[in-house]
Design brief:
Helix content: 55-70%
Bound molecules: acetyl coenzyme *A, oxaloacetate ion
Largest sheet: 3 strands, antiparallel
Structural class: mainly alpha
Radius of gyration: 22 Å
Number of strands: 3
Oligomer: single chain
Number of domains: 2
């Protein structure tokens, strides 16, 4: 093996980005220069999406235009609904979402137009339509009729309306909105890098997002928010959390929702998400999950010095909001599609085909035998 190899590209800087900065030494994350905690405390998800794509927070006129465009594009075609309805409802919702984004691409006559303006329009369209797809899938799996989007409601309110037929209380809405803001962008994480690799071949933005969805599905990345809630339900009683965790560590198993490739002290987003989850849990009778969270967090810190990542508070928060566990990673997609598409546009603005080298570790070169076996 070549000594220069960095497995998993750990610690390797592969390009520049002006979209976000993760600084583990100061435990900070900024989008276009703004600390994410300040954005989560004061801004809507639509404003943050505008910031990620266009580099600035919108003024009131720009925001109105942006939200008008979002509201006008929420509906998906009958053909996409038809495809969704034909996908088996026992598959993972991320499989369906991947398929739905492929459909959006196949239906777009400008699919192969990679100009920044065209890709920006496609990014806005995906941002508007993915909640409609996810809500439809959520309801069909429960055997319920589809609720079409309501252009009179904001992004978050409309999503709850399409899923549950009602808009929840403000703490719940705010907690959801904070999760969307915190999940939106995180530099060269695995799914974003995947999107950039696809974009670097000059393929289309829908292909890049489809591939990114595949990368996010895995439990070492976005799929961890589902695994966290399954773990908490399996433990059941907060008093058993410490023993359960120590047993898993003794068995050399990974405990989902802990650790991070870049942050080694703590994930900069967790305190904000934990506070929103705790506030919502107090209002919705979810105190048991707050206690479970605290016991697991303390046990992991003591045993391995590992901190929770964003998926740890997001999992139980989505559970308390009433979403089924397999829908948690699609909720992450609803947010991260902003970051992915911004990175596709950035990659294309100064493109270089992403094609690293490998060190060969197979058999020495040899000769093909002179005579092939005769098939009988
Ligand atoms: C939004 C997001 O995508 S955040 C990430 C979500 N993913 C998860 O929560 C999955 C669980 N966590 C993990 O698997 C890891 O922490 C990762 C993959 C996120 C990052 O890890 P890496 O930087 O690749 O480190 P790696 O997996 O090599 O772990 C380093 C050491 O910490 C241990 N470790 C890291 N995370 C965990 C964990 N969650 N549980 C138990 N041990 C862990 C490893 O076993 C390893 O220990 P060792 O040196 O004794 O063998
Ligand atoms: O940055 C990473 O490796 C994973 C992560 O936290 C994210 O994508 O939000």
């Amino acid at each position: 093996m070549n000594a220069d190899i960095r497995k998993g590209l750990a610690g390797v800087v592969v390009d520049t980005t002006a979209i976000s900065e993760v600084v583990p030494e100061t435990n900070s994350l900024t989008y276009r220069g703004y600390p994410v905690q300040q954005l989560a405390a004061t801004r809507s998800f639509e404003e943050v999406a505008h910031l990620i794509w266009y580099g600035e927070l919108p003024d009131p006129i720009a925001l109105r235009r942006f939200t008008d465009r979002e509201r006008a594009q929420r509906e998906v075609t009958r053909s996409t609904i038809g495809v969704i309805d034909r996908v088996p409802d026992n598959c993972h919702p991320m499989d369906l979402l991947r398929t739905a984004v492929s459909c959006l691409g196949a239906e777009d006559p400008a699919e192969d137009d990679n100009s920044p303006v065209a890709n920006q329009a496609k990014a806005e369209a995906m941002f508007a339509k993915l909640p409609t797809v996810i809500a439809h899938d959520h309801r069909r799996r429960r055997g319920l009729d589809r609720i079409p989007p309501d252009a009179g409601l904001g992004f978050t309110e409309n999503f709850f309306h399409m899923c549950f037929g009602e808009v929840p209380e403000p703490e719940v809405l705010r907690c959801f909105e904070i999760s969307m803001i915190l999940y939106a962008e995180h530099s060269f994480n695995a799914s974003t890098f995947t999107a950039r690799v696809v974009a670097s071949t000059l393929s289309d933005i829908y292909s890049a997002v489809t591939a990114a969805i595949g990368a996010l599905k895995g439990p070492l990345h976005g799929g961890a928010n589902e695994a966290v809630m399954r773990m908490m339900l399996e433990i059941g009683d907060p008093a058993l959390a410490r023993r359960w965790l120590l047993d898993r560590l003794a068995a050399k198993e990974k405990v989902m929702g802990f650790g991070h490739r870049v942050y080694k002290d703590a994930d900069s987003r967790v305190p904000t998400m934990k506070a929103a989850f705790t506030a919502m849990a107090e209002r919705t009778g979810g105190g048991k999950w707050v206690e479970m969270y605290a016991n697991l967090e303390a046990a992991m810190l003591e045993a391995k010095g590992l901190h929770p990542n964003l998926d740890f508070p997001a999992g139980p928060a989505y559970y308390l909001m009433g979403f089924d566990i397999p829908m948690f990673t699609p909720l992450f997609v609803m947010s991260r599609v902003t970051g992915w598409s911004a990175h596709v546009i950035e990659q294309l603005a100064a493109n270089a085909l992403i094609r690293p080298l490998s060190a060969y570790s197979g058999l020495e070169q040899r000769q093909v035998p002179a005579s092939a076996p005769v098939l009988t």
